[in-house]
Structures are given as structure tokens and as C-alpha cells.
Amino acid sequence: MSVRVGVVLFPGSNCEQDVVEAVGMLGGVGEILWHGDSTINGVDAVVVPGGFAHGDYLRPGAIARFSPIMSAVADFANDGGPVVGICNGFQVLTEAGLLPGALQKNRGLKFLCGPSTLRVETSDTVFTDGIDPGAELSIPINHFEGNYTCSPETLAQLRDEDRVVFRYVDNPNGSVDDIAGICSRGRNVVGLMPHPERAMLEVLGSVDGRRLFTSLLASVGRVRAA
After folding, report:
1. So which residues are the catalytic ones?
2. How far apart, in whole angstroms, are the C-alpha atoms of residue 61 and residue 120?
């Protein structure tokens, strides 16, 4: 049976079809989930994609967190379901309280779009299982408010609990501790600013995104078994 991955669509999302296609390339089935619905329709995993949910009014993700779908996503995550937030999706997950910290404007107040190199810091998540810590992945970035920040106490906790999933090799945006992505205590919720769905084809410069989505699809089997 194919793994069904729900991709949440907010007004202003613009990467949902990229995620659907990435999942399909690896044998999964991507399904769009409407932000106004109160169910995730029994999918096996959820991705909150990039874009500008609700125009990023107030601040990125601040309005999207109140969408009916997010209550269902939170319930799914709290039950151990795999959830990944990419770029704007990472911002939404922090606003919704599913991940700690916040994303602020980039250092130098510059929009950034281009390749970046990430170092995998832990293989113990639904998005990095099977990838050795220390592996470097070429994954593009495309953001203005991707500068991850948190309190010193939260940073210490993330380090102590091995919850920093990705770090930038060459920090482009000023994120604290070079953080590009983190996970929840349950390790089933992952947020990252770079766009792995844009690193699926050699013609686009990298296929390293395939390794991450392969892990996500495989994680469903592990969650089912548990």
C-alpha cells in the first residue's frame, strides 16, 4: 500500500505541488489538505509546505496556526504521526507550538535564495533516519525570515536532547548555533528552512532531497509497527 502524505494548503502556499511531486517520485501519494478542513483525511504523514501562508500578515505562520486543519495536525503529531514543516511550514509549526523557538528576519535584512549546504546532526528523526550524522546535503534556501532564534534555555535543551537536526555549514542568515532545522521531543515533528523538495532532480543541481523524503516515507512503516 502506498504511503499517503498530506500536504497542507493555505492561502499563499506556493510549494505544495512541489512536495506532492517529490513524494510521487519516490512511490508515495501526495494529497492536498485544505486549511479550512478539520481533518487530515487519514493520511500517513503530513507536510506543511513553503510559501506565504495568509500573506505572512502579522508575522509568518501567525494566522495559519489558527486554521482548523492545524488542530488535526497537532493531534496527529501528539499521537506520534510524522510531520514535517518546510520554510514557511517550519514557521507555522513554531507558531503552533509544535516546535520551540521562532524565525526572525535574516541577518542583514536580506532575502536569500540559492544553494546551501546542510550538515545532518542526528539520524534519529522521521526525516533523517538512515542518513549518517555528519553527512552534508546540498539543499536550496529561499527565505527572508529564516533566522532561527530561541532562548538560551531552549538552545541548551535542544543540544542536550540531540534535537538539532540540521546545521548550516556556512550560516547564511544568522540563525543561532547555525541551526537549519530541529525536531520535537518525540522526534516525529521536524522543521527546517531549506527546501528539500527543490533538490530532487540533477537538472536542478542536487538530488539530496530524495534522501530526506525517502526517510519520511519509510518512517510511516516504523510508526505503524509501533
Report:
1. 87, 195, 197
2. 25
Element (DSSP H or E) covering residue 8: strand 4-9
SS3 47: strand
The structural domains of the chain, ordered by start, are 4-225 (3.40.50.880)
pTM: 0.96
Per-residue pLDDT of the chain (226 residues; tens, 9 = 90+): 789 999 999 999 999 999 999 999 999 999 999 999 999 999 999 999 999 999 888 788 989 999 999 999 999 999 999 999 999 999 999 999 999 999 999 999 998 999 999 999 999 999 999 999 999 999 999 999 999 999 999 999 999 999 999 999 999 999 999 999 999 999 999 999 999 999 999 998 899 999 999 999 999 877 666 6
